[in-house]
């Protein structure tokens, strides 16, 4: 009986160390820095079509320090299980002029971004589904700012304007 | 140095556990304002909110939900869920001035929320259907005031 108690105690001690580490990892991942695998053509030429691993920081959007030109990770307003990576083109109150389908026509529309929202667009306007399709994005859906790419190693470096 | 760190560690562990519970299981919120009369008081209620339903997609129309405001991202708002994506919702546009009704279909990935007291509530009738990603939890129990202690029944419209 005593054997089992000793084994159980040791198992709990080891499990609690792992638990504490996972806790720390989770808090860092959600509030400081995380990595993300980005796939798709909508951010060419900034991000590759075959997939990049980027580092996302979760501090700027909580402090309100995002601005136009920033690459952000957002939760999709169309499918809450998916996250998208796009660029902020305009903040609330700004006037944004956009062309819905650059392959078809030159006509463009303008609107003012409402309060509490941002306007996001992919760098590759021809194949990106973004605010031109689903409208301005509520600020609450922004999850972090993409600032660096770590894979593939040939394109390692900071991602800027 | 060792003595001091020995008493800090359980506090950090306690905060960790509290944080994970708050983020993934449930939390309490204080609501105030007239938009959910008569269900919730104008002066304030302490509600118990669980986060599992919204994370697993099991919220139903009729539930009272809390969500991040689409207008003011620092505010969290409490309203009743009226329609999920694909549902057809009929609502009174401005009940104070006219009886005009509108019917819309809730777009994909969005939900329609309205306050119980539509005469004084800023909800989806003003800012449109909100993306599902803004939902933060489902309020299911009232803790304070004492006389309202009890479960918050889902009320389909």
UniProtKB/TrEMBL annotation, chain A:
<dbReference type="GO" id="GO:0004252">
    <property type="term" value="F:serine-type endopeptidase activity"/>
</dbReference>
<dbReference type="InterPro" id="IPR036286">
    <property type="entry name" value="LexA/Signal_pep-like_sf"/>
</dbReference>
<comment type="similarity">
    <text>Belongs to the peptidase S26 family. IMP1 subfamily.</text>
</comment>
<dbReference type="InterPro" id="IPR019758">
    <property type="entry name" value="Pept_S26A_signal_pept_1_CS"/>
</dbReference>
<dbReference type="GO" id="GO:0006627">
    <property type="term" value="P:protein processing involved in protein targeting to mitochondrion"/>
</dbReference>
<keyword id="KW-0732">Signal</keyword>
<dbReference type="InterPro" id="IPR052064">
    <property type="entry name" value="Mito_IMP1_subunit"/>
</dbReference>
<feature type="signal peptide">
    <location>
        <begin position="1"/>
        <end position="30"/>
    </location>
</feature>
<dbReference type="GO" id="GO:0006465">
    <property type="term" value="P:signal peptide processing"/>
</dbReference>
<comment type="function">
    <text>Catalyzes the removal of transit peptides required for the targeting of proteins from the mitochondrial matrix, across the inner membrane, into the inter-membrane space.</text>
</comment>
<protein>
    <recommendedName>
        <fullName>Peptidase S26 domain-containing protein</fullName>
    </recommendedName>
</protein>
<feature type="domain" description="Peptidase S26">
    <location>
        <begin position="17"/>
        <end position="99"/>
    </location>
</feature>
<feature type="domain" description="Peptidase S26">
    <location>
        <begin position="108"/>
        <end position="151"/>
    </location>
</feature>
<dbReference type="InterPro" id="IPR000223">
    <property type="entry name" value="Pept_S26A_signal_pept_1"/>
</dbReference>
<feature type="active site">
    <location>
        <position position="42"/>
    </location>
</feature>
<dbReference type="InterPro" id="IPR019533">
    <property type="entry name" value="Peptidase_S26"/>
</dbReference>
<feature type="active site">
    <location>
        <position position="86"/>
    </location>
</feature>
<keyword id="KW-0496">Mitochondrion</keyword>
<keyword id="KW-0472">Membrane</keyword>
<dbReference type="GO" id="GO:0042720">
    <property type="term" value="C:mitochondrial inner membrane peptidase complex"/>
</dbReference>
<keyword id="KW-0999">Mitochondrion inner membrane</keyword>
<keyword id="KW-0378">Hydrolase</keyword>
TrEMBL record, chain B:
<keyword id="KW-0999">Mitochondrion inner membrane</keyword>
<keyword id="KW-0496">Mitochondrion</keyword>
<dbReference type="InterPro" id="IPR036286">
    <property type="entry name" value="LexA/Signal_pep-like_sf"/>
</dbReference>
<feature type="domain" description="Peptidase S26">
    <location>
        <begin position="5"/>
        <end position="92"/>
    </location>
</feature>
<comment type="similarity">
    <text>Belongs to the peptidase S26 family. IMP1 subfamily.</text>
</comment>
<feature type="active site">
    <location>
        <position position="79"/>
    </location>
</feature>
<comment type="function">
    <text>Catalyzes the removal of transit peptides required for the targeting of proteins from the mitochondrial matrix, across the inner membrane, into the inter-membrane space.</text>
</comment>
<feature type="domain" description="Peptidase S26">
    <location>
        <begin position="100"/>
        <end position="142"/>
    </location>
</feature>
<keyword id="KW-0378">Hydrolase</keyword>
<dbReference type="InterPro" id="IPR019533">
    <property type="entry name" value="Peptidase_S26"/>
</dbReference>
<dbReference type="InterPro" id="IPR000223">
    <property type="entry name" value="Pept_S26A_signal_pept_1"/>
</dbReference>
<protein>
    <recommendedName>
        <fullName>Peptidase S26 domain-containing protein</fullName>
    </recommendedName>
</protein>
<dbReference type="GO" id="GO:0042720">
    <property type="term" value="C:mitochondrial inner membrane peptidase complex"/>
</dbReference>
<dbReference type="GO" id="GO:0006627">
    <property type="term" value="P:protein processing involved in protein targeting to mitochondrion"/>
</dbReference>
<dbReference type="InterPro" id="IPR052064">
    <property type="entry name" value="Mito_IMP1_subunit"/>
</dbReference>
<keyword id="KW-0472">Membrane</keyword>
<dbReference type="Pfam" id="PF10502">
    <property type="entry name" value="Peptidase_S26"/>
</dbReference>
<comment type="subunit">
    <text>Heterodimer of 2 subunits, IMP1A/B and IMP12.</text>
</comment>
<feature type="active site">
    <location>
        <position position="35"/>
    </location>
</feature>
<dbReference type="GO" id="GO:0004252">
    <property type="term" value="F:serine-type endopeptidase activity"/>
</dbReference>
<dbReference type="GO" id="GO:0006465">
    <property type="term" value="P:signal peptide processing"/>
</dbReference>
